[in-house]
Backbone:
């Protein structure tokens, strides 16, 4: 069993956990004390492990840092890595997402931001350039801000094609490119927006998160503002797969790293409450691509529970069997080393957990 790294971004810093067996954990932190950590990327290409962190200081503003020694030291460029060109007339408010590409695009890292925009790095995340075609898209002017702000929060790469990319914006919806970002097209057919006069618009859905199936790369899972969906054609059309769930509101969705058809959710009561359904701490898993969902709660709290799991605070690792992790706004982090069948609390009493990322180190 290789050592596992668990990176936990909170409202007041980054905490790093390491475990030789996913049973015993040691955490360090907070790194970036008093910075809100909204995004974490773990890049294991090129023979090293690079941690990328979007740190948001209330005094200095947002920045992207990186570490090649598992957090022992951190580097920040002399000028902001992510910055809007002057011609845009805007400035960076937050880095919502840091997503390394795969082997199909060596050195490439993507950043999603608020205001909603996509940036691309070709030097491992040390400098980024704005994707101008998406920023100039004629529909962008009509994107509005979700409850948490207007952010490009999801970036899905395709290991088959370096030019194929799927992104999601709150509240713009899903957009796709097949030509490396030179053109973008909305991909929201079938996704309901109950808060709009036209409930099935071309764009404007409040998409919360998208995850890709590890085997069938044309299959995507989506958690919407009041809906759970699956696409089998790369986002060309979406079908509702939430009928077996106790609630279809929620933020995060994560896919199994190897097994097709397996994904995880943490449902919440509708947006008027935004609390765990029936005040129970439960993850739901599907093994048939959303046709059915099963609650997973062995080892999780049994008393009334109020911990909300945000869009990037649910993830899997690539261990065998796969590990599943989530953190909540109560400052608790839970993990499962057996694909969700049983759980343990890994740490607690942290600040609000905003994002969680995990990976094997060898």
Residues:
């Amino acid at each position: 069993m290789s050592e596992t790294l668990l990176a936990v971004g909170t409202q007041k810093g980054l905490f790093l956990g390491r475990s030789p067996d996913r049973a015993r954990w040691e955490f360090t932190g907070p790194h970036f004390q008093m910075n809100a950590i909204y995004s974490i990327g773990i890049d294991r290409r090129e023979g090293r492990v690079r941690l990328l962190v979007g740190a948001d200081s209330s005094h200095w503003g947002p920045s992207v840092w990186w570490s090649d020694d598992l957090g022992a030291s951190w580097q920040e460029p002399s000028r902001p890595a992510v910055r809007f060109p002057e011609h845009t007339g805007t400035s960076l408010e937050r880095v919502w997402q840091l997503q390394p590409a795969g082997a199909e695009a060596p050195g490439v890292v993507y950043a999603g931001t608020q205001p909603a925009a996509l940036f691309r790095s070709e030097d491992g995340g040390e400098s980024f350039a704005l994707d101008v075609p998406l920023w100039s898209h004629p529909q962008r002017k009509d994107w509005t801000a979700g409850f948490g702000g207007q952010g490009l929060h999801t970036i899905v790469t395709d290991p088959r094609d370096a030019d194929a990319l799927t992104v999601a914006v709150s509240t713009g919806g899903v957009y796709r490119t097949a030509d490396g970002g030179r053109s973008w097209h909305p991909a929201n057919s079938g996704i309901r927006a109950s808060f709009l006069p036209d409930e099935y618009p071309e764009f404007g859905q409040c998409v919360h998160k998208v995850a890709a199936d590890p085997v069938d790369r044309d299959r995507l899972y989506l958690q919407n503002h009041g809906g759970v969906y699956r696409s089998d054609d790369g986002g060309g059309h979406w079908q509702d797969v939430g009928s077996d769930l106790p609630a279809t509101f929620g933020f995060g969705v994560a896919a199994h790293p190897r097994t097709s058809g397996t994904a995880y959710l943490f449902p919440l009561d509708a947006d008027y409450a935004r609390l765990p359904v029936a005040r129970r701490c439960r993850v739901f898993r599907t093994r048939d691509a959303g046709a059915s969902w099963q609650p997973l709660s062995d080892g999780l709290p049994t008393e009334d529970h109020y911990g909300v799991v945000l869009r990037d605070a649910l993830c899997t690792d690539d261990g065998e069997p796969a590990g599943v992790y989530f953190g909540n706004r109560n400052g608790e982090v839970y993990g499962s080393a057996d694909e969700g069948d049983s759980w343990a609390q890994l740490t607690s009493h942290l600040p609000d957990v905003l994002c969680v990322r995990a990976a094997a180190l060898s």
The chain has a mean pLDDT of 96. The two ends are 9 Å apart (CA to CA). The chain has one domain: 37-331. Residues 132-135 form the longest helix (4 residues).
